[in-house]
Please model this.
Amino acid sequence: MNTSVEISGIRLKNPVMNASGTFSLADYEEYIDIERLGAVVAKSVTLNSRQGNPPPRIVETACGAINSVGIQNDGAENFIAEKLPPMRRFKVPLIASIAGLTVEEYGLVTRILEKGEGISAYEVNISCPNMEAGGKAFGMFEEDTYRVTRAVKDASTRPVIVKLSPNVTDIVKIAKAAVDGGADVLTIANTYLALAVDIDTGRPVLGNVLGGLSGPAIKPITLRLVYEVRQVMDIPIIASGGIATYQDALEYLMVGANAVQVGLMNFNKPDIMIDIIEDIEEFLDKKGIGDINEFIGSLKI
Ligand SMILES: Cc1cc2nc3c(=O)[nH]c(=O)nc-3n(C[C@H](O)[C@H](O)[C@H](O)COP(=O)(O)O)c2cc1C
Model:
């Protein structure tokens, strides 16, 4: 049976990878065989190191969690020098994640990552606050999405995956802006802006007030976003939102995603991605489907 998929020239042995910021190789390598994964996505890096948002930074909600980690990281140069070399021990495509607080910063981070060996592609996290325009996420606006994508693409020799924000009125318009800016692949989508309140203290639960909702609660909404984009665009899509089971992953693939990312649920069960990979194989086998690419986009309307 063939479970491999190709995304912008990168061959993945299966379509399952982690979502950025929810999985570190150092923590997980004792629980799972990393080389079983289709790819590994690193946590987002910015130009300079960042402390992230004030605590508390994560709160559980019904069927999910709201987080406001705030791109805590040690900066792009540190990523190349310290984080990347141990990641390259594994024979699995490695996707680096680029973040920034200005359009220019995205280009600068890309230039630094270009020096790193063994990176297969960049995923661009456009859900960061634009510090030159009032702190709303770049990914909320077509123009900013275009400019950030272009800044990365112009500096990159590697495929560029743009990870869209779901906090938009019309995802198709934003997807088109990313493609106009040079995106080779889209990841759909990041977390949903959300709020949790503590009725005893009368204050927001999170130190940052607002955070991003992830987990099974968001899966049907992100599934709809993938569907909307796939209806009008041919570009490879990686789905990210609420995957907890192989059925969730298969729903995304059926709607037309070429690969999927598992995020929050890695915290519940560290080997959940292996379960999902094995269960997908078993499902395809039972259905007599010899190639996963026949299943992708097979939704009948
Ligand atoms: C604790 C936490 C940290 C995250 N950090 C990042 C990050 O650094 N960069 C990024 O692009 N997305 C980040 N995300 C978003 C996830 O990659 C993913 O897109 C989102 O959580 C939806 O998938 P899920 O419902 O499977 O978690 C983070 C999510 C969580 C829960």
Notes: The first strand starts at residue 5 and ends at 7. Residues 272-287 form the longest helix (16 residues). Residues 19-22, 43-44, 67, 69, 71, 97, 125, 163, 190-191, 214-215, 218, 240-243, 262-264 surround flavin mononucleotide (CB under 6 Å).
